[in-house]
Amino acid sequence: MTDTPMAKLRHDPNGIAQAARLLRDGRLVAFPTETVYGLGADATNDRAVAEIYAAKGRPSFNPLIVHVADGEAATRLCHFNADADRLSGAFWPGALTLVLPLRADAGISKLVTAGLDTLAVRVPDHPVAHDFLRAFKGPIAAPSANPSGRVSPTTAAHVEAGLGNRIAGLVDGGACPVGLESTIVACVEQPALLRAGGIPTEALEACLGQPLLIAEDPATPTAPGQLASHYAPHGAVRLNATSVEVGETLLGFGRVDVPLNLSPTGDLTEAAANLFKHLHALDAMGVTKIAVSPIPDHGLGQAINDRLRRAAAPRP
Ligand code: TXA
Ligand code: MG
After folding, report:
1. Which of 60, 236, 239, 267 is a good FRET partner for 229, with 20 to 30 A between their CA atoms?
2. pLDDT at position 215
3. Is 231 part of a structural domain of the chain?
4. What was the pLDDT predicted at 224?
């Protein structure tokens, strides 16, 4: 809990300077990235990172992604192999997180990695995140800025509704253009996909010239974000719905005439950008049964279906 009310900050020199100051003081600041809003803390400050876990109500074994301003800053934290060089060269800044061996002298709080000897790192492609990282001049640990297990935030209003009383600052940068979390690839030995996300698997494999291993066993906590029920709206979720049953509200895709349609034209990029926004809207409407139209399982459809399967999984 913060004892002072959350500061709503703008994307201007004053707002960014204040956001950086709050981080330096060990406080939590939520900020937009191109994927979703992040809940940021100084990645070198144990107490500040502990606040992230407390604010989210997050299981402590779940490690965090560290955000840096550029690839050079990432090389000071991690060891890059040839695959990591290739992927970071092609997709940074952008919606790709690399899990890499942590450097002994990186100075990252052990709470960030939850004791692992690898670090998840990415260079976000968003003007606010970029300016914030430059002003702070250090690595920012940031999970998605939602209470643990709930839907990720893609607007400042989502962050405020979920965590407004637990954070010191929130930089408003409008809606997140990608709308889905980053794709996570481990480049430790063979490159392995840990989480589908904003960069399609096909694009990564084309860049690497080989298929990614799929580390998808839900029992393995290598990417605990992968654990069964996650990204859950309040209502029950039924997938691949080609008709609507009594009491259900349809989350549409393609040519169905409903108020909440991920993409009436069947565009997967638009659907990704709308996914969490529409799930939040269904929560706000108090919907108890959600039916979801079938979504094609290629490109960004893979990541969308991954999130929807988790939303539909039995709740703990
Ligand atoms: O787009 C995103 O990735 C957003 C924005 C804010 O950058 N962040 C995000 O963070 O989605 P989060 O904490 O919600 O998800 C991080 C995922 C988790 O599934 C976590 O288990 C995994 O990254 N992760 C972090 N460090 C890891 C590591 N060393 N090895 C394997 N997985 C790791
Ligand atoms: Mg998350």
Report:
1. 267
2. 73
3. no
4. 44
Atom of ligand 1 nearest to the CA of 198: 1
Instruction: Please tell me the predicted confidence (pLDDT) of residue 218.
Output: 45
Q: How many domains does the chain have?
A: 2
The predicted structure's pLDDT at residue 137: 98
Cα(27)–Cα(20) distance, integer angstroms: 10
Ligand 1: distance of its center to the CA of 184 in Å? 7
Residue 2 lies in a domain: no
| Ligand 2 midpoint to CA 37 (Å) | 10
* pLDDT at residue 60, as a whole number: 60
pLDDT for residue 59: 66
- Same domain membership, residue 253 and residue 137: no
Instruction: Return d(Cα 78, Cα 210) in angstroms, integer.
Output: 23
How much distance in Å is there from the Cα of 194 to the middle of ligand 1?
A: 9
User: Is 97 within a domain?
Assistant: yes
Angle at 244 (CA atoms; ends 36, 239), nearest 5 degrees = 45
Q: Are residues 91 and 171 in the same domain?
A: yes
Q: Whole-prediction pTM value?
A: 0.87
Show the domain range for 259.
Answer: 236-312
Residue segments in the chain with a per-residue pLDDT below the cut of 70: 1-3, 59-61, 216-231, 316
In this structure, the answer to whether residues 272 and 306 fall within a common structural domain is: yes
Give every CB contact of residue 244 below 8 A, 6+ residues apart in sequence: 250, 291
